[in-house]
């Protein structure tokens, strides 16, 4: 049986992919710089590799350890102690690793004139069935249009239109103490990464966007534009980003207190649309027209396009780079969809907020970082293999490689081992063994024959 298991493990490729990723992008160096370590005992590298590969087993930690309880190399408590460490700087680790992938691997693969972007967006991190989770808050779910318990996962990710790499994130609670359902958490050292994370969790979205952008800029400037949806298109945010010598392309929404300067007058967005010259409409591209405006002291171009879901409605996109064409603005903004694919993949395939039911804020940040690194691995694999499919397809391929040995294969291996033992120990001829083998198969129930892919007749 030991021989069978060792042979089976040698055929598993996912672990090899993860180990190669570790060596290629110097993951252990990033862990050490970020002060992510553990005491004596089980190897740090093996533990992190196990946590990264856990999603590809299609099991959570509890189910996996139950399956291998006789051979498990470590206890569940070791994993939780590792994730709960407030001194681990997971944000720095993600930035180091992500910027290494972007600067040293992704960028050389594309032409120097290709447009790279940094995308900001947030998504619901649901803990709706939880009670005593640190900094748990009521947050608004824009999909269900109701308040739920959880966090808002604000993410900054790099994209070149072909690959997406998450670089930084923050699990945001609520800025209002009344909306936070559970404040109590473990006592953490002042000025530790865990303490700083908790301070950032109660900041406003606009403040956190600026912080994440500054963190990213310290590690990579390999992007030309910052993209985000209308939820973040506030004058303060756009002005702060522009002050950092980075242009913005974002969706706009009509708000009565936000105006645009044109011909020395102030207009709301819907009023700007009424004075737009629509004689140069480009039906094939869906572009209605564009207009140059003064956006609170910043020259900007507003491009109006048809809403493809409702031709009678229009959408507006703002660009602080007025040198590029309308078509180019819309094309670049379309790259923003990469982060939506990222959120969907993390929630549906990579175990975000599902794999560990932890209560401490540190553990949630640590596990979310693991999910981000899993997506990085998929992005690298997708790029290496020149596969045009989504990362979801790569995920299923890796899962297929880590699939447990099938019942039929295990049964056949056991029979082969048994036959070889009969030959060696009892000196039986092949004819006798074949007769015994045939008689045995005839006695197998029909229901089992189907699972063994044998002829049930």
Q: In whole angstroms, how far apart are the ends? A: 31 Å
- Give me the secondary-structure category: alpha+beta
Helix-strand sequence:
HHHHHHHEEEEEHHEHEEEHEEEHHHHHHH
Mean pLDDT: 87
Tell me about the biggest sheet?
A: 10 strands, mixed
Which spans of ≥5 residues are poorly predicted at pLDDT below 50?
A: 1-11
Q: Would you write up a description of this structure?
A:
- The protein is α+β, with helices and mostly antiparallel strands.
- Among the domains are: 244-335, no CATH class; 407-451, no CATH class.
- 44% of the residues lie in helices and 19% in strands.
- The chain has helices at residues 2-11, 14-24, 27-33, 44-53, 61-67, 76-83, 90-106, 193-201, 205-219, 235-242, 269-274, 326-334, 337-348, 361-384, 391-401, 407-426, 430-442, 446-451, and strands spanning 117-126, 136-141, 146-159, 164-172, 180-182, 225-228, 247-252, 260-262, 265-267, 287-295, 298-307, 310-319.
- Helix 10 (235-242) links the parallel strand 6 (225-228) and strand 7 (247-252).
- Helix 7 packs parallel to helix 14.
- The longest helix is centred in the last third of the chain and has 24 residues, at 361-384.
- Mean pLDDT is 87; it is low at 1-11.
């Amino acid at each position: 049986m030991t021989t069978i298991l060792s042979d089976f493990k040698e055929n598993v490729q996912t672990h090899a992919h993860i180990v190669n990723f570790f060596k290629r992008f110097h993951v252990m160096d990033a862990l050490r710089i970020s002060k992510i370590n553990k005491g004596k005992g089980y190897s740090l590298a093996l533990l992190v590799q196990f946590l990264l590969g856990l999603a590809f087993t299609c099991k959570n930690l509890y189910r996996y350890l139950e399956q291998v309880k006789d051979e498990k190399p470590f206890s569940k408590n070791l994993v939780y102690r590792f994730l709960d460490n407030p001194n681990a700087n997971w944000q720095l680790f993600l930035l180091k690793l992500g910027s290494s992938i972007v600067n040293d691997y992704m960028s050389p693969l594309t032409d120097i004139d290709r447009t790279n972007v940094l995308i900001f967006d947030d998504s619901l991190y649901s803990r709706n069935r939880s009670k005593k989770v640190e900094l748990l808050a009521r947050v608004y779910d824009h999909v269900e249009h109701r308040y739920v318990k959880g966090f808002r996962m604000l993410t900054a990710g790099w994209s070149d239109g072909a690959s997406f790499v998450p670089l930084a994130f923050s699990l945001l609670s609520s800025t209002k103490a009344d909306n936070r359902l559970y404040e109590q958490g473990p006592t953490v050292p002042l000025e530790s990464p865990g303490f700083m994370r908790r301070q950032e969790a109660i900041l406003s979205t606009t403040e956190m966007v600026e912080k994440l952008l500054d963190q990213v800029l310290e590690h990579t400037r390999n992007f030309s534009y910052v993209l985000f949806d209308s939820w973040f298109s506030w004058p303060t945010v756009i002005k702060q980003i522009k002050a950092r010598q980075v242009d913005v392309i974002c969706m706009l929404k009509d708000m009565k207190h936000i105006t645009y300067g044109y011909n020395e007058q102030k207009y709301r967005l819907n009023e700007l649309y009424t004075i737009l010259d629509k004689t140069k409409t480009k039906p094939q591209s869906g572009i209605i027209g564009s207009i140059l405006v003064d956006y609170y002291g910043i020259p900007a171009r507003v491009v109006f396009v048809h809403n493809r879901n409702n031709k009678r409605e229009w959408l507006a996109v703002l660009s602080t780079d007025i040198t590029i064409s309308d078509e180019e603005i819309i094309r670049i903004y379309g790259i923003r969809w990469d982060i939506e694919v990222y959120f969907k993949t993390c929630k549906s395939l990579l175990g975000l907020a599902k794999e560990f039911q932890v209560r401490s804020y540190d553990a949630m940040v640590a596990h979310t970082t693991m999910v981000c690194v899993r997506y990085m691995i998929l992005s690298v694999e997708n790029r290496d293999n020149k596969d045009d499919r989504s990362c979801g397809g790569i995920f299923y391929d890796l899962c297929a490689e880590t699939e447990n040995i099938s019942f039929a294969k295990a049964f056949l291996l056991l029979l082969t081992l048994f036959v070889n033992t009969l030959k060696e120990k009892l000196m039986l001829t092949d004819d006798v063994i074949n007769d015994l083998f045939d008689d045995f198969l005839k006695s197998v129930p029909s229901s089992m024959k189907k699972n063994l892919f044998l002829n049930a007749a």
